[in-house]
Specification:
single chain; 173 residues; 2 domains; 3 strands
């Protein structure tokens, strides 16, 4: 480790730890960015302690210096589904997409808000991440409110156009 302020990257890989953590840490190790050491614990399974190598520390500093960009921007599946449902021409398809997305987001919000972020000794970064997730979910729900309003206006326009077209055809026929 370099410098007095440097700390090892501690990751508890006890049973029940997600496979995703293993994959990421294995890749970092394979790429020479971290090394690991198994540390026995008295009443728990062994802990693996991962430490950044000099190359890993340099890569981390480079990564931290770059702004975090959205990896998929606004091209996620929800917007693709919304676009497809709008082009189907069936208002029920569009309202169904919105309804299912709202139910999903509300479920996610319940999960995030039930996390006890206010317990003494809570990790401030974990609290920040949970707060960010909650704020993103509220923003997504607000977007659904706007989409509901626009969908209602679009549905009314389609209904008016359809009844005008029907009246025109009836008068012409």
């Amino acid at each position: 480790m370099s410098g007095p302020a440097a700390r090892p990257l501690l990751v508890d890989l006890s049973p029940g730890c997600g496979a995703r953590h293993h994959q990421i840490l294995d890749r970092l190790s394979r790429d020479g960015l971290v090394t690991s050491e198994r540390q026995p614990q008295p009443a728990k399974p062994d802990r693996l302690v991962y430490e950044l190598t000099d190359t890993g520390r340099a890569e981390l500093q480079h990564w931290l210096a770059e702004p975090a960009e959205r990896t998929r921007g606004h091209r996620d599946d929800f917007f693709l589904k919304l676009l497809a449902a709008a082009h189907v021409g069936d208002p029920a398809a569009l309202t169904g997409v919105l309804s299912r997305q709202r139910a999903y987001l509300l479920g996610q919000l319940r999960t995030v808000t039930h996390q006890d972020r206010h317990e003494p000794g809570a990790d401030p970064i974990a609290v920040l991440v949970a707060t960010a997730a909650e704020l993103h979910l509220h923003a997504d729900l607000a977007l659904l409110d706007v989409a509901d309003q626009q969908t209602a206006a679009t549905t009314r326009s389609i209904a008016v156009a359809d009844s005008a077209s029907t009246a025109h055809h009836a008068a012409a026929g």
